[in-house]
Amino acid sequence: MKRVKKKLLSDFIARKGLKSTRQRDTILDFFLASDRHMSIEELYLKVRAKHPNIGYATVYRTLKLFVEAGLAREIQFADGQTRYEHVNEGEHHDHLVCTHCGTIVEFENPVIEKLQDEVAKSHGFLIETHKMEIYGLCPKCH
Amino acid sequence: MKRVKKKLLSDFIARKGLKSTRQRDTILDFFLASDRHMSIEELYLKVRAKHPNIGYATVYRTLKLFVEAGLAREIQFADGQTRYEHVNEGEHHDHLVCTHCGTIVEFENPVIEKLQDEVAKSHGFLIETHKMEIYGLCPKCH
DNA sequence: ATGTTTATGAAAATCACTTTCAATGTTCTT
DNA sequence: AAGAACATTGAAAGTGATTTTCATAAACAT
Asked: Which domains are delineated in chain A?
């Protein structure tokens, strides 16, 4: 899995004539080792604990690069922080977010997906993406 | 309908020991007369055209007040601007957003709602709210 | 009317990015 | 291996959208 992501990135870098750097490798390792749904700030803090010389802007730019390379995806929850989650080929999921402790649980529901497609079609929309989040209290918080 | 909203607000103001002001009345009128899904900026500009003395901060605070009073709801789309929509009792809807022209269409789908409840329950979540947005091209844009 | 308390407007402060720029690094060519 | 050519980095400045501060002005109870 990690091997696949690393290859995705190095291929992207080669294809675009970019350069492979120590910072990018380090940030990728931390991203792959981390929980899903990290904000820039969170990842930056983790990275900085071990690599105090890596700056916020580099983490920011590298995360954008991961998105372009297809190994991460941006998501926005109601807390106003952009988060980045891992992309696994052919997988789509939505989220349950605990409004108390912030826990994020992923789920898939093909029936909902299908209904969304139908709704879009019935309004004449050409669907590109969709997002769905359910907010509430997780088992631990009630 | 408007009468109901105005009462919601005046009741809230009374209950909380707040004060009823000309600005709040004016902003409420503009909000009720407006399209749904207004950003603070948009509403501020409309209000200011007729009432140049009402400041941005007042519109901002008043919209928050509407949310507390239960007659408006905040929504965030992928464009990074907070918008406020009208709350109508017992109504829930989701959104189709055109990624080209920004048009927002509302829809309701009870089957999806029910499936969402089931998903939440199956993960032990106590559901509070949810949101779902479908992004794509509207009929005019393709 | 008057005092008490809340609301307002303008400006300053925050927040979460996003960009700039001089200094470094990489990779490519000899 | 050296230098050229170009991309990347870190620190700091800049942005855009709020959010807060604070002195002044309005409400409302007395």
From this structure: 2-86 (1.10.10.10), 94-141 (3.30.1490.190)
